[in-house]
Amino acid sequence: MVKTKKIYLFWIFLFTSILVLIFSQMFVKLEADTEVSQSVTTSDAPHLWVISDNHFYADELFEDSEKFRQFEATSVGKDIRYTSQVLTAFVKKALKEKPDGIVLTGDTTLNGEKQSLEQMTEIFKPLKAAGIPVFAIPGNHDIYNGWARKFTNQQQITTHQISPGDFRLAFSDGYNLSHSEDKHSLSYAVDLENYRLLFLDSNIYADRFSKTEPITSGEFKEKTLEWIESTLKEAKVLKKTPILFMHHNLLAHNEKVTKGFVLNNATRVLSLVKQYQVPLAVTGHIHLQNIMQSRDNPNFYEITSSSFSTAGNQIGHLQLLNNQMKYEVEAFDPREYFDSLALENPDLKEYPSYLEEKYRQVGKDLATNILVQSDIENADKLADMVGEVNLRYFTGNNQLTEAEKDQIRNDPNYAILKKSVPQLWQSIEHSIEDTNIPNNRSITIDLP
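Structure (tokenized):
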């Protein structure tokens, strides 16, 4: 009996040992697999592409009806008709050029339609297969937006809205690769070589299906601010350079357009920026291509991106080197990646010009409304001037020579505006005389 018991215990011990060995090997493999999945890139000079405010609108929500055209007329220069063709072309370009990652700084969808998020996820699938991660944060239009609409049978009807869980699942790359996540928002942090990238959710949105318009302004919750500080503090200990990516702005890129665009508690965040030596924030929301140096903290810069769905379809190229960061914006022409059927469409055949004219028209319409009320002669010519300036300003193409500035200021129409419609004149003057950083399309930032 004793002998039988010893044999029984021996077999239990042997079986248990084998199980331990198997599970330990499985754990080692799992840990190794996790390590591989947590590696964003093997490049020692990572190259990120940045787009913002692409306002993607799913094909199944679109109907070329009178209701849709009325809606389209309120889009402020955005293309909401051909977003799937352009985003597909963007993905083809990325597969060809292979950036180390793609960053979306909010307003990924037009008005938070769940179908838009789902189709965008499908378009992005080849990126995942190619090992190109997408790091996304929501904008004020993305989560529980009461404006989510579908056009069908000549009518405009409500459609399913994006929840925080939907967003996190659709853009899982960043969360899966994250070093840390904030429990109180959709914010997360990713370590990339000598850098720590903080992707910050600065939006104010409902906690359930909404019937109201999106809230334009943004702010960080107290708990999120605590998480941001702890993440920056750890980055400082690890000697990693932090970069902030968020939807709302920390600096006033246009002093006349600050309410709802500059973060409500920007002052508190800027104090953390200074304390933890953050050199750069990359933001969107204002649809303006602009680079600004902080006047209070000259070691800090903020880049705002123009809307990807407006003139230029602009892509920011951010290269992270050991001792400096390089940024340059590219005007993307998607026609190279359109198929022959798409190019039969006259809008797509001349797509860059099509988009530019849409944006010019925004400035022209704004000016015309003001000029008609002022009963000024040559209103059409004046409106054309404002439209051209508006296009140049928002695409960041306002680095003018002194001769070009003189040509504008010597135009008789400029003098008429200055005398009769000072608010329009001030807008033009502001756009041609950038007193901060004149070059809004490229910068090299040296690191200490």
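The chain is about 40% helix and 15% strand. The mean pLDDT is 90.
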